[in-house]
Design goal:
Order of helices and strands of chain A: EEEEEEEEEEEE
Helix content of chain B: under 10%
Structural class of chain B: mainly beta
Oligomer: heterodimer
Largest interface: A-B, 26 and 27 residues
Radius of gyration of chain B: 13 Å
Strand content of chain A: over 45%
Largest sheet of chain B: 7 strands, mixed
Chain lengths: 116, 115
């Protein structure tokens, strides 16, 4: 079975500072993908970044980077230069790449608040 | 390119009624997945459709059903509504079904309140 754990229910960060959101996972799959989504109060889930278990380099997308440590089964999201618009819920998710279809398993989320 | 659209955005029903939610995927996307989001259970996978066929199903009772049309649009139906069905229902589309790093793009969701 697959499981995602996000241990930080809520976090605060000062505008323009960097912040790390934690995500650990458990899976028996050899190949899997890890995703981060942002959910503003409007409800829509916005895709941020993807990391494949076979990728040797950490993924980056603009101000978002993923600190992938396979041996520790962690996939932390780093947001650099936080902006007020980054205030939202953030979800870590995973999927086995070959036998899970499109089914994503989500963590409980971390609510990020950016202070001016 | 337009994103995933869901209708209606908000819905209020009473116990025992049934409801149908609609999802239009991103143009060219053929896979549609549905998720239920509640404060207590978080985000849970309902089902996935590809080429009008259900390819994957989550652990939900038979009151929850869905279908996909030839234009990839999808509907989900919940019959005999219960108070616990109050949730945000999210639809996500992707180009294909679970192909490697295939990313799912979500719609704005339908907020269902059951009274």
């Amino acid at each position: 079975a697959q499981k995602i754990t996000q241990t930080q229910p809520g976090m605060f960060v000062q505008e323009k500072e960097a912040v790390t959101l934690d995500c650990t996972y458990d899976t028996s799959d050899q190949s899997y993908g890890l995703f981060w989504y942002k959910q503003p109060s409007s409800g829509e889930m916005i895709f941020l970044i993807y990391q494949g278990s076979y990728d040797e380099q950490n993924a980056t997308e603009g101000r978002y980077s993923l600190n992938f440590q396979k041996a520790r089964k962690s996939a932390n999201l780093v947001i650099s230069a936080s902006q007020l618009g980054d205030s939202a819920m953030y979800f870590c998710a995973m999927r086995g790449l070959y036998n899970q279809g499109g089914k994503l398993i989500f963590g409980q989320g971390t609510e990020l608040s950016v202070k001016p | 390119k337009a994103g995933v659209t869901q209708t209606p955005r908000y819905l209020i029903k009473t116990r025992g009624q049934q409801v149908t939610l609609s999802c239009s995927p991103i143009s060219g996307h053929r896979s549609v997945s549905w998720y239920q989001q509640t404060p207590g259970q978080g985000l849970q996978f309902l089902f996935e459709y590809f080429s009008e066929t259900q390819r994957n199903k989550g652990n939900f009772p038979g009151r929850f059903s869905g279908r996909q049309f030839s234009n990839s649009r999808s509907e989900m139906n919940v019959s005999t509504l219960e108070l616990g069905d109050s949730a945000l229902y999210l639809c996500a589309s992707s180009l294909a079904v679970g192909q490697g790093a295939e990313t799912q793009y979500f719609g704005p969701g339908t907020r269902l309140l059951v009274l």
